[in-house]
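Tutorial handout. Part one gives the primary structure; part two gives the three-dimensional structure as tokens.
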Amino acid sequence: MFASVALAMNEASWLDRLASSCVLTVREHAGASLSSQGVAGALGLKFEDFAPVRSTAVFKGQRNFSGEWWCSTNGRMVPYESWLERDHLMSMDRAPRIIGIASQPFRIDFKLPDGPRWHVPDFFARLKDGSALVVDVRPDSRIKDRDRQVFEATGSLCRGLGWKYKRVGGLPRVYLANLRWLSGYRHPRCLVQDISAAITGYLSGAPGSRALGQVAGVVGDPVATYPTLYHLMWWGTISADLNGTPLGPHSILRIAR
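Part two.
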């Protein structure tokens, strides 16, 4: 018991020292100047609405592919610096518990034991309950010791603020393929209200579950039904197994709980 209390006190002391030695640099909106402040005021800032603290690098011969993703959660473009970042941005965009996403929302300047360091996390996400999630995208194979120190310090800082933090790598291939397919139907223009009502009514009234092809055929013309059906799957109104096999006519659908 005394050992666990001492460990908790050491962790709290470390977080206090880390927070007191950190500076956050932010850009409140596109075109605004950068501003810096201590970590103490971070909880009151709406990072999900902030502009990136740095511009996306584009140069001849670069090995990564950068771009912008139209984020259905925000209703605006969100930049990414690699296809792996885009994949995780796409996954967060579909997550029902996330209500806001920002790319490179702040720069953290640390004072670590081996000297001053700085880091710009890849994404900030605001959750429905008001809490936050900070995400770094980096596969295990590309992490060096110095990178690991910065990721650990970032995670400690986030925990001290009551935020969640995770460092992520590649996504499962089947899940990613299904996610990419559904993402093509994320825009509100794919939703036809009459068809949506018919789909949800049919699935709610039918005992058990139904196959995707069956739902599209029973409700009406499949050509007209599929866009709305996929839109409802993107938004989680209808659930399906996105991890097992690629989506197809035999994929089982249910009304999401």
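Part three, for discussion. The CA atoms of residues 195 and 225 lie 7 Å apart. Residues 1-10 have pLDDT under 50 and may be disordered.
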